[in-house]
Design brief:
The complex is a heterodimer of chains A (486) and B (398). Chain A is an alpha+beta fold. Chain A is 33% helix and 20% strand. Chain A has helices at 2-17, 24-33, 145-148, 151-155, 157-162, 173-181, 200-210, 223-229, 240-243, 261-276, 289-300, 307-321, 365-380, 386-389, 451-466, 478-484; strands at residues 47-50, 60-66, 73-74, 79-84, 89-93, 98-103, 109-113, 117-122, 279-287, 327-329, 334-336, 342-344, 346-348, 351-353, 356-357, 394-398, 417-428, 434-445. In chain A, helix 12 crosses helix 13 (365-380) and helix 12 packs across helix 15 (451-466). In chain A, 29% of the residues are buried. The chains are: A alpha+beta (486), B alpha/beta (398). The interface between A and B is large, with 50 and 51 residues. Bound molecules: thiamine diphosphate (TPP) and magnesium ion (MG). Chain A: Residues 46-122 form the Lipoyl-binding domain. Chain A: InterPro entries: 2-oxoA_DH_lipoyl-BS (IPR003016), 2-oxoacid_DH_actylTfrase (IPR001078), Biotin_lipoyl (IPR000089), CAT-like_dom_sf (IPR023213), E2/Pdx1 (IPR045257), E3-bd_dom_sf (IPR036625), PSBD (IPR004167), Single_hybrid_motif (IPR011053). Chain A: This is Dihydrolipoamide acetyltransferase component of pyruvate dehydrogenase complex.
Chain lengths: 486, 398
C-alpha cells in the first residue's frame, strides 16, 4: 500500500517537475524508480542546434570550420562555427549557454540545408557524453516554413482559391492569369519548370494541344455603375468589360535563346563601345555613277568586282590622304597607324565578324575583291585565323545590298571610325540629270577626331568615288610626309 | 518499499505547497530586503538627483529577475526562429538592454504610458502580453498580439503605444500622449523612448521645445546602446552626453545595466514630471548584444571581444543575479528554478508560435478602425472593396 501511494506521488512529481526542476542526476534516479531501467540510462536530452539561415536568401550552407569541440563549454555569444552562406562566410553565434555535446555535421560539410540538425548541446553539469543522438530521420531538414504553415490555408480553402492575384508555389503572375483565363487549375497542367514549377509555356502547350478557348471573363461593373446597377444585375453582354476578349497568340511558345559565346563577346564589346566612346556622326551622299560604269566595263571583260570593293579602295586612298583618320585610341590618346588595314563587316550565322583587308591602300581593286571574297567565305565557315580579324585601323559596314538608304554603326574599339554604307539610288543631280547616289555615314570617336577632320575626310572620299581615277593618286604614307614636306 | 529518493521527493513536494518556498533547498531563511549603492547619476540642470542608495525586497528582486530573464529568452527564441526562417522581415532584438525596460516598468504607475521604436518585444511582454502573444506575432500567426498582422515592429498593449518604424517619430507622439494626460488633468506620465542614433533627429528637438514650453509630463528616455545602424555613437553624434541634449530640459544619466538604478531614476523622473515641473531627459547607458537587426551580424563596427567583455562584466541579468545571491535575497537554486520555469514557458510559447495558424483571408481588412464609419475598405481594384470587420479588442482608445 505504501508503495502504491509513493508510486503515484512519485509519478506526479516526475510528470510535473521532471522537465524543469530536477537536475540530471535526480532525473536519472526518478526514472530508475519507475523501472525505466535502461542500461545506465545514458539519456541526456540535448537541445538541438540546426543549420541557421544567416543571409536572407540562404537555403543551404557549408560548415567551414567548427570553432568549438565536443565537450567545450559554451557561453552566450560564443561563435560555434563559421558557415559559408550564399554570400559570405559568417560566424554562427549561439545565444544559449551550456556544453557542446555532439557535432553531427563536421567540418567542410557542403550544402547543408537550412534546418538540418548539425549539433546537440546540453546544459552545464549534464553528462555531455551521454547525450541522446536522435534517430537519423530527424536530422533531415523539416519541411520549409511555407509548407509547414497551412493550418490556416486549410481552414479557409474557399478564400485561398480566390487569391489569383498573388504568387504562390513559385507561380508567376502570367501563369496565374493564363490559368484563370482558361479556367484551369494548376493540377490540370503538367509542369516542366525547375522544382516542378508550372511555366507559362506548359499552359500554352496544353491550350494548343486541346484547342482550349479562353473563358469569358467575369463581369466587372465599371466603378460609376457599381452602386446603381448592382441590384439590377446588369446584363453582362452589354458591359464593355465583357466584350474585350483576352488575346492569346495562337501557337505561341516561348523559347529562350541562350547567347553563344560569340554573341556574348559582341554584346559586351558593343555595349562598352557605345557607352564609353563619345560617338559623333557625319553623313555624305556620293555620286557613284562613274564607279558603276567602270564596274560594268570590267564585268564585260570578265572581271568581277563589287561596288564594295571600290568603296574599300576609295576609303583606303582617302585614309592615305587624311592620315589622322587612320588611327586607334590607346586609352589615353589617338595613335596614328602606319598601314591602312580596312576591316570589312561580314555577316555569318553566328554574328558579325570583321576580317581585315590588310594594306588595302597598296592593293588594286581586283586584288581587294579576291581577298574579300576569300575572307568572307572562310568567315562563314568559321575558319578565320585570329590575326585575320583582329586589328585593323578602320571598318566598313555595308548594308547597301539590302536596300538600306543610310544607317549608323557602332565603333569597333580601339579603332576610331566606322563607315556605314547605304544603297545606291537614282536621284536628280544639280544639272537635272539622273545621278547614282550612295550615302555613307561615318561614326567616329570624337576624342580622337574633330568634326572638321571627319568632314574633310568624307568630302575627300566623295571626290574619289565620284572620279575613280583619283584612286590612282593614292596618298603619301605618313612616314614619308615629313620628308617630302607635305 | 519506498526508496530513499522517492521519499525525499515527497517530503519536499509537501513543503513546496506551503508557500513559494524553494524546492530542493534547505529550509534556510532569506533576507526580505537588501540595499545597494548604485553608480552615481549624472545630472543636467538639476539641483538634486535620485538617491544612490536603493532598496529592493525579495519579492521585487525575484520578479525583476524573472522579467529580465523572460525578455532574454524571448529574444533568444526570436533569433533562433529567424535563423530557421520562420520569422521573416524586420526583427530587432533587445538582449543586453533588459534592465532599462524592467527598471522603468518597475517604477511606472499602472496608467503611465510608454512608446518606443522598433526594439519592443520586451516592452510588449512587460506591458501585459504573454510570451506567446509576442512570439506568435513575430511568426505572423493568429495568437500574436496583433493577430499576426503587425510583426516585430507593430505590437501594442494597454498604455503601450507600440513600436514605431520611423526613427525618432515616436517621440513627438509620446509628447502627445503626455499632453493628453495634462489636458485631462490626470497625473500620468509618458515615457518616450529613442536610441542614441535617433537622438540626432530634428523632431526630437522640436518636441523638447514644445514639451518644456507647456511643461508636458513627458520623460524623454534616450537608450544609449552605443550604436545606431552600423555606426558607433561617437562617430555619429557631436555630443554623446545625451542627457544634456535637451538644453533647457533637465536630464539624468543612469547606468542602464543596473535595473535598480534605472528604477530609481525612473521613480525620480515620474515624481518630477507629476509635480508639474515639466519634462525630463533620462539617458540609460546600456549595450546591445546583437546586431542592429537580423541582417546585421553586428561585428563589422565593433569587435566580438568588446561584446563578450560586456557580457561577462556588465550583463544586467548576471550582475543582478549576483546581487541577489550575495545579499541572500534568494539562493542560487531558487534562481535556477526560475530559469527553468522561464525556459519552459518560452519554449512552450515558441512551439505554439510555430504551429499556430494564420488568420483567414477575410480577416485581412479587419480591425483597421476601432469604430469604422464605413464598412468597406478600398481594395486593389477600387470597385471591388473588402468588408471591414471588428474582431480583436481595441486598446488605448482614449
Ligand atoms: C527616418 C528613418 N531614417 C532611417 C531609418 C533606418 N534606421 C532604422 S534603425 C536606425 C538606427 C537607429 O539607431 P538608434 O536610435 O541608436 O537605435 P538602436 O537601433 O540602437 O536601438 C536607422 C538609421 C528609419 N527607420 N527611419
Ligand atoms: Mg543605438
Amino acid at each position: 500500500m505504501a508503495s502504491a501511494l509513493t508510486g503515484r506521488l512519485g509519478r506526479q512529481v516526475a510528470n510535473k517537475f521532471l522537465p524543469t526542476l530536477l537536475t540530471p542526476k535526480l532525473r536519472l534516479r526518478v526514472k530508475l524508480e519507475h523501472g525505466f531501467r535502461q542500461s545506465a540510462a545514458l539519456f541526456v536530452v540535448g537541445s538541438e542546434i540546426k543549420m541557421p539561415s544567416l543571409s536572407p536568401t540562404m537555403a543551404e550552407g557549408t560548415i567551414v570550420k567548427w570553432l568549438k569541440n565536443e565537450g567545450d563549454p559554451i557561453a552566450a555569444g560564443d561563435v560555434l562555427c563559421d558557415i559559408q552562406t550564399d554570400k559570405a562566410i559568417v560566424s554562427f553565434e549561439i545565444e544559449e549557454e551550456g556544453i557542446l555535446a555532439k557535432i553531427l555535421v563536421g567540418n567542410d560539410a557542403k550544402d547543408v540545408k537550412v534546418g538540418t540538425l548539425i549539433a546537440l548541446m546540453v546544459a552545464e553539469g549534464e553528462d555531455w557524453k551521454g547525450v541522446e543522438i536522435p534517430a537519423a530521420g530527424s536530422a533531415a531538414p523539416p519541411s520549409s516554413p511555407a509548407e509547414a504553415k497551412p493550418a490556416a490555408s486549410q481552414a479557409a480553402p474557399a478564400v485561398e482559391k480566390k487569391t489569383a492575384g498573388g504568387h504562390s508555389g513559385g507561380q508567376g503572375p502570367a501563369v496565374h492569369r493564363l490559368l484563370e483565363q482558361f479556367g484551369l487549375s494548376s493540377s490540370d497542367v503538367p509542369a516542366t519548370g525547375p522544382k516542378g514549377n508550372l511555366l507559362k509555356g506548359d499552359i500554352l502547350n496544353l491550350v494548343n494541344q486541346k484547342g482550349l478557348k479562353p473563358k469569358a471573363p467575369q463581369t466587372v461593373l465599371p466603378p460609376a455603375a457599381s452602386k446603381a446597377a448592382a441590384p439590377a444585375a446588369a446584363a453582362p453582354s452589354k458591359t464593355p468589360a465583357a466584350k474585350a476578349k483576352p488575346q492569346v497568340a495562337k501557337g505561341s511558345k516561348f523559347i529562350d535563346v541562350e547567347l553563344t559565346n560569340m554573341r556574348k563577346t559582341i554584346a559586351k564589346r558593343l555595349s562598352q563601345s557605345k557607352s564609353t566612346i563619345p560617338h559623333s556622326y557625319g553623313g555624305i551622299d556620293c555620286d557613284i555613277s562613274e564607279v558603276l560604269k567602270l564596274r560594268k566595263a570590267l564585268k564585260s571583260e570578265g572581271i568581277a568586282t563589287s561596288v564594295n570593293d571600290f568603296v574599300i579602295k576609295a576609303v583606303a586612298t582617302a585614309l592615305r590622304q587624311y592620315p589622322h583618320m587612320n588611327c586607334i585610341w590607346d586609352g589615353q590618346q589617338a595613335v596614328p597607324v602606319g598601314d591602312v588595314d580596312v576591316s570589312v563587316a561580314v555577316a555569318t550565322d553566328t554574328g558579325l565578324i570583321t576580317p581585315i583587308v590588310k594594306k588595302a591602300s597598296e592593293k588594286g581593286v581586283q586584288e581587294i575583291s579576291a581577298v574579300v571574297r576569300d575572307l568572307a567565305a572562310r568567315a562563314k565557315q568559321g575558319k578565320l585565323q585570329l590575326n585575320e580579324f583582329q586589328g585593323g585601323s578602320f571598318t566598313i559596314s555595308n548594308l547597301g545590298m539590302f536596300g538600306i538608304n543610310y544607317f549608323s554603326a557602332i565603333i569597333n574599339p580601339p579603332q576610331c571610325s566606322i563607315l556605314a554604307v547605304g544603297t545606291g539610288r537614282l536621284i536628280l543631280g544639280s544639272d537635272g540629270k539622273p545621278v547614282q547616289s550612295m550615302n555613307v555615314t561615318l561614326s567616329y570617336d570624337r576624342r580622337a577626331i574633330d568634326e572638321e577632320q571627319a568632314a574633310e575626310f568624307l568630302s575627300g572620299l566623295r571626290d574619289i568615288l565620284k572620279d575613280p581615277s583619283r584612286m590612282l593618286l593614292g596618298g603619301v604614307p605618313p612616314s614619308m610626309r615629313a620628308r617630302v614636306g607635305i | 518499499m519506498m526508496s530513499p529518493t522517492a521519499r525525499l521527493v515527497v517530503r519536499r513536494l509537501n513543503q513546496r505547497n506551503q508557500a513559494l518556498a524553494p524546492f530542493f533547498t534547505s529550509t534556510k531563511s532569506f533576507a526580505t530586503e537588501a540595499s545597494f549603492e548604485t553608480r552615481p547619476f549624472k545630472l543636467h540642470k538639476l539641483e538634486e538627483g535620485p538617491k544612490t542608495s536603493v532598496t529592493v525586497t525579495r519579492d521585487e528582486a525575484l520578479k525583476y529577475y524573472k522579467q529580465m530573464l523572460t525578455i532574454r529568452r524571448i529574444e533568444t527564441a526570436s533569433g533562433n526562429l529567424y535563423k530557421e526562417k520562420i520569422i521573416r522581415g524586420f526583427c530587432h532584438l533587445y538582449s543586453g538592454q533588459e534592465a532599462c525596460a524592467v527598471g522603468m516598468k518597475a517604477a511606472m504607475k499602472p496608467a503611465d504610458a510608454i512608446i518606443s521604436a522598433y526594439r519592443i518585444h520586451g516592452w510588449t511582454y512587460l506591458m501585459g502580453v504573454p510570451p506567446l502573444g509576442v512570439l506568435a506575432e513575430l511568426t505572423g500567426r493568429k495568437s500574436g498580439c496583433a493577430r499576426g498582422k503587425g510583426g516585430s515592429m507593430h505590437m501594442y498593449a494597454p498604455h503601450f503605444f507600440g513600436g514605431n518604424g520611423i526613427v525618432g517619430a515616436q517621440v513627438p507622439l509620446g509628447v502627445g500622449v503626455a499632453f493628453a494626460s495634462k489636458y485631462r488633468g490626470d497625473d500620468n506620465v509618458c515615457f518616450a523612448l529613442y536610441g542614441d542614433g535617433a537622438a540626432n533627429q530634428g523632431q526630437i528637438f522640436e518636441v523638447y521645445n514644445m514639451a518644456k514650453l507647456w511643461n508636458v509630463p513627458c520623460i524623454f528616455v534616450c537608450e544609449n546602446n552605443g550604436y545606431g545602424m552600423g555606426t558607433s555613437a561617437e562617430r555619429a553624434a557631436a555630443s554623446t552626453t545625451y542627457y544634456t541634449r535637451g538644453d533647457y530640459v533637465p536630464g539624468i544619466w543612469v547606468d542602464g545595466m543596473d535595473i535598480l538604478a534605472v528604477r530609481e531614476a525612473s521613480r525620480f523622473a515620474i515624481e518630477y514630471c507629476t509635480s508639474g515641473k515639466g519634462p525630463l531627459v533620462m539617458e540609460t547607458a546600456t549595450y546591445r548584444y546583437s546586431g542592429h537587426s537580423m541582417s546585421d551580424p553586428g561585428t563589422s563596427y565593433r569587435t566580438r571581444d568588446e561584446i563578450q567583455e560586456v557580457r561577462q562584466n556588465r550583463d544586467p541579468i548576471a550582475s543582478f543575479k549576483e546581487k541577489i545571491i550575495s545579499t541572500d535575497l534568494a539562493s542560487a537554486d531558487e534562481l535556477k528554478a526560475i530559469d527553468a520555469e522561464v525556459k519552459k514557458e518560452v519554449d512552450e510559447a515558441t512551439r505554439k508560435a510555430k504551429s499556430d495558424s494564420e488568420i483567414p483571408m477575410e480577416e485581412l481588412p479587419a480591425d483597421i478602425y476601432a469604430a469604422p464609419l464605413e464598412e468597406e475598405v478600398r481594395n486593389v481594384a477600387p470597385w471591388e472593396p473588402l468588408r471591414h470587420k471588428r474582431i480583436g479588442s481595441a486598446v488605448n482608445l482614449n
